[in-house]
Amino acid sequence: MSTDPITADECVRRLRAILGPGSSGGLPRRRRDQWILLHAIAQAFGPDDRLTEKDATARIQDFLIGPGKHLEVDAVTLRRALVDEGFVDRDPAGRDYRASSRHERFVRFGGAPDRTGPDVE
To answer: Which helix (H) or strand (E) covers residue 76, if one does?
Structure first.
């Protein structure tokens, strides 16, 4: 692992910038910011949840109509990024989705924002 742990304070601060009005709206360019965003979205996946693709997408859409309302990224793109970056695992058939810790190969979080995300208003 090549990065320092991301603290809860850094998560909140960066999420305000990533999700707030006037942000670029797309996926952040900096990988660390991408991890922070994906980590916030992944909080919608409980440790014991096994979700269908439709349900996983619905949870991401809930994030997009809540804290992520200023993002200009669709739920499918975010679902793929969650899997690619190791925050969510998908079974080989692509039917079940569940929370994952594979991302810890690259990044660790020393704390996290709550499940609802930061207040970005």
So the answer is: helix 75-84
Strand 51-52 and strand 88-90: pairing?
Answer: unpaired
pTM: 0.86
State the Cα–Cα distance between residues 29 and 77, nearest whole angstrom: 15
> Cα-Cα-Cα-Cα dihedral of 13, 15, 17, 18, to 10°?
160
Domain that holds residue 38: 8-105
Structure tokens at 60: 């991401």
Residue 111 binned pLDDT confidence (cut-offs 50, 70, 90): low
> Does residue 26 sit within a domain?
yes
**Residue 99 belongs to a domain with what CATH number?**
1.10.10
Taking the C-alpha atoms of residue 16 and residue 9, their distance in angstroms, rounded to an integer, is 11
